[in-house]
């Protein structure tokens, strides 16, 4: 068989953009996007993306140029996930909650040639551009207006070359979109979520995005034509690839610019939502909404990020949400480890099922291998659910590397063939992975390792606690001690004291794991993707290190 080799017919580069092309044929008259009074079909969406892509090309954008988007979950944001790469450019979604200085740094680092700007965020982006040094060329700016608000050129800033809707109007529906010459070409550039002080630009190829999109649909058992509510920011790893995935299955995208628990519940009932995603903070929001009523029909909810506390899973599922927990990272483009459910677990008590769902689980089909190893030796840890090590991955959905950062790339993508995640976990005897912490979040007190996630899980089981996060507080004697930051549920007359919270933990944890300090806050600081900003909390705990443990309220 040596004479049989790849040929042009069987080696076309993989690209998820073909999903939209197919959707226009198979689901052409079916609803693709719903946003306020705006409704599009899949034929409309394909047509609009072609028009925008052709106009992008007319601005002189070449293959490999970076095009950035700063927008909320609105129709244009969804369309640009297709239109930008259809023009041959590299898509760069930017976190809308970053400050102007950080956005300015990212635009310069990526050498972005063109920036699409949500009308509501124009002052933020204009400020970021004003911070450019005089010798650095500025990108072209395009203004995205809302719900077809057509503005006269005199009514919007001259800093913007054009509006998005005018680009749609001027573009060609017959545009021959730019297909990748190689599936290894870069397709997306996403900067890490901002939970670290030095965000890195993660570059993914068409190949990795194609693989993870297929994988994400199969892993979550997404059927044809689901109704997907966008509570997960599209700028966060391209909405875990469900931006392209919804085109593959002809789903309906329910877009929300902003939301709270009331809006989410109203949207679910109004549009008969079947699927939604988000960080555990969204689950917590839904579970603690005082006017929440059981859903008319089940809604599949995929959560990721920090492990969802069992108590939160239990409360949410009692309302009718079917919670699936996945683990992923920007470097993997989406969910690559999930808690594959076994039928026999359905007979377990509800509390036990919730604990199982809080585990990350096993690799998805698109990932080649996952392991937990000693970060120094690379040797696998014991599969006893106790021995902790670093989580490592390998597979075709992993990133090409970090933009302009070979040192960080080589540190993450090691020569031994593994991607080192920086997450600390254990492997259970049944082969299921459980994340214990980020490596920087492990608390070492008196020589003992404390998983902040385990302590947080106990805090969330307290019926008075709304949110909880545990970080290290420097201590002269112990080195570090656990410091808990807690927000309480609304409407309480009698609020718990620090002593009561500590006693609650002491009854359920080994003494060395019990928080020595409790700080009460109105709300815990979060990133735009719903992750609690532990680096901020660590700074507060460090400033408190010279003070004796005492009840604190902020």
Automatic annotation (TrEMBL):
GO terms for molecular function: (E)-caffeate-CoA ligase activity. Pfam families: AMP-binding (PF00501), AMP-binding_C (PF13193). Pathway: Phytoalexin biosynthesis; 3,4',5-trihydroxystilbene biosynthesis; 3,4',5-trihydroxystilbene from trans-4-coumarate: step 1/2. InterPro entries: AMP-bd_C, AMP-bd_C_sf, AMP-binding_CS, AMP-dep_synth/lig_dom, ANL_N_sf. Residues 454-531 form the AMP-binding enzyme C-terminal domain. Residues 20-403 form the AMP-dependent synthetase/ligase domain. It comes from the Eukaryota. One of its GO terms (biological process) is phenylpropanoid metabolic process. The keyword Ligase applies. The keyword Ligase applies. CDD domains: ttLC_FACS_AEE21_like. Keywords: Ligase, Phenylpropanoid metabolism. Belongs to the ATP-dependent AMP-binding enzyme family. PANTHER family: ACYL-ACTIVATING ENZYME, ACYL-ACTIVATING ENZYME 6-RELATED. This is Acyl-activating enzyme 5.
């Amino acid at each position: 068989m040596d004479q049989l080799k790849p040929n042009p017919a069987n080696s076309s580069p993989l690209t998820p953009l073909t999903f939209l092309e197919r959707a226009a044929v198979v689901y052409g008259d079916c609803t693709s996007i719903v946003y306020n009074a705006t409704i599009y079909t899949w034929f409309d969406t394909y047509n609009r993306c072609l028009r925008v892509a052709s106009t992008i090309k007319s601005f002189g954008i070449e293959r490999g140029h970076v095009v950035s988007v700063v927008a909320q979950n609105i129709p244009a944001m969804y369309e640009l996930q297709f239109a930008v790469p259809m023009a041959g450019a590299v898509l760069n979604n930017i976190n809308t909650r970053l400050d102007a200085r950080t956005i300015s740094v990212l635009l310069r680092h990526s050498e972005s040639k063109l920036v699409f700007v949500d009308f509501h965020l124009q002052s933020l982006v204009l400020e970021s551009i004003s911070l450019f040094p005089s010798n650095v060329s500025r990108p072209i700016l395009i203004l995205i207006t809302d719900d077809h608000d057509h503005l006269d050129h005199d009514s919007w800033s001259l800093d913007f070359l054009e509006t998005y809707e005018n680009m749609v109007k001027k573009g060609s529906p017959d545009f021959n979109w730019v297909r990748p010459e190689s599936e290894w070409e870069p397709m997306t550039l996403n900067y890490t979520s901002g939970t670290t002080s030095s965000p890195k630009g993660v570059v993914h190829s068409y190949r990795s995005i194609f693989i993870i999109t297929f994988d994400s649909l199969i892993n979550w058992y997404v059927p044809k034509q689901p109704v997907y509510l966008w509570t997960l920011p599209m700028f966060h790893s391209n909405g875990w690839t469900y931006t392209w995935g919804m085109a593959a299955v002809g789903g309906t995208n329910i877009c929300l610019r902003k939301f709270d628990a009331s809006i989410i519940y109203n949207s679910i009932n109004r549009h008969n939502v079947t699927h939604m995603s988000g960080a555990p903070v969204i689950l917590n929001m839904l579970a603690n909404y005082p006017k929440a009523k059981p859903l008319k029909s089940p809604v599949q909810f995929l959560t990721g990020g920090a492990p969802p506390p069992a108590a939160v899973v239990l409360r949410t599922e009692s309302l009718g949400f079917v919670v699936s927990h996945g683990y992923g990272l920007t470097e993997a483009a989406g969910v690559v480890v999930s808690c594959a459910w076994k039928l026999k677990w359905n007979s377990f008590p509800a509390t036990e099922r919730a604990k199982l769902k809080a585990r990350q689980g096993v690799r998805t089909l698109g990932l080649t291998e996952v392991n937990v190893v000693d970060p120094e030796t690379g040797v696998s840890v014991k599969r006893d659910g106790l021995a902790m090590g670093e989580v490592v991955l390998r597979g075709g959905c992993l990133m090409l590397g970090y933009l302009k950062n070979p040192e960080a790339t080589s540190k993450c993508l090691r020569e031994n063939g593994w991607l080192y995640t920086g997450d600390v976990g254990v492997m259970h005897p049944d082969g299921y992975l459980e994340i214990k912490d980020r490596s920087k979040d492990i608390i070492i007190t008196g020589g003992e390792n404390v998983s902040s996630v385990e302590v947080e899980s106990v805090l969330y089981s307290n019926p008075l606690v709304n949110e909880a996060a545990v970080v290290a507080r420097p201590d002269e004697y112990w080195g570090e001690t656990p410091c808990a930051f807690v927000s309480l549920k609304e409407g309480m007359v009698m609020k718990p004291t620090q002593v009561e919270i500590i006693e609650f933990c002491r009854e359920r944890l080994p003494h060395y794991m019990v928080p020595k300090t409790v700080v009460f806050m109105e709300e815990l600081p979060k990133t735009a993707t719903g992750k609690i900003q532990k680096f901020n909390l660590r700074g507060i705990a460090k400033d408190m290190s010279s003070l004796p443990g005492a009840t604190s309220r902020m």
